[in-house]
């Protein structure tokens, strides 16, 4: 990657400089990351091999779990390793790569959540047309478009990052590379670039959050015409999605819709949506979804039975 400065590496300050707390950070986030990977892989395998989870909702859940795993992997392993490192050095190229991955998978998570809301809207508000509107081919096309949109967003972000010149301090007061902490190190007037960052990530988060909330309000309003059983099932699904949306979008909007000023809570807020939310998603979707739990039981029952016959 072409450098627009003389800096070849950055030093991440991490979550804490206290050695005892760093050991706690290592233990806590190692468990979180392990749980994230195992939980999301369990959902991926269950949906992949289950014969009962073939609807578009579970196709989108499959990609949400896949993206959650990649999204968490873009930050968590470095945070875990750096917790035991005396000097948390990251090269310029690694820093730019991390920014690209962070925003590629972050944007993809946003788009998948939007697709899940669209799926629920069609299923509840247009039930007779659902098999036609949300057929397999349409869903695949929507996923491909989501990847393309995420790639364009990430490319725009990395172009802005590569234009930043660094000629002074290389200390990043964060546990990962992102535009907000990097802007504070740039030795140029960052007003215009920050406006572009806010209009890029900030607008992406805020506009999609508003769209999602409006869609769920419409969905919940339409449930008054459904039977009690149908209403209960739809409410359970929509409540799950709303919880995930709020947990992910709340911290994102806080981080990306304001100037690059430092708040004491910034790093913990970032931890919540980059590591916490991917960890919670498998728990939310399995604990509140009877179909996923039943599919998991059947899958493991078949696996155990087949192994015992060998």
TrEMBL record:
One Gene Ontology term, aspect cellular component: plasma membrane
SUPFAM superfamilies: Family A G protein-coupled receptor-like
Localization annotation: Cell membrane; Membrane
A single MF term (Gene Ontology): olfactory receptor activity
UniProt topology in membrane: Multi-pass membrane protein
PROSITE patterns recorded: G_PROTEIN_RECEP_F1_1 (PS00237), G_PROTEIN_RECEP_F1_2 (PS50262)
One protein family per Pfam: 7tm_4
Record-annotated G-protein coupled receptors family 1 profile domain positions: 39-285
Transmembrane segments: 24-45, 57-80, 100-118, 138-160, 201-223, 235-256, 268-287
Keywords: Cell membrane, G-protein coupled receptor, Membrane, Olfaction, Receptor, Sensory transduction, Transducer, Transmembrane, Transmembrane helix
Protein family (similarity comment): Belongs to the G-protein coupled receptor 1 family.
Function: Putative odorant or sperm cell receptor.
Record PANTHER family: OLFACTORY RECEPTOR
Protein name: Olfactory receptor
Organism: Equus caballus
Annotated gene: OR4C11
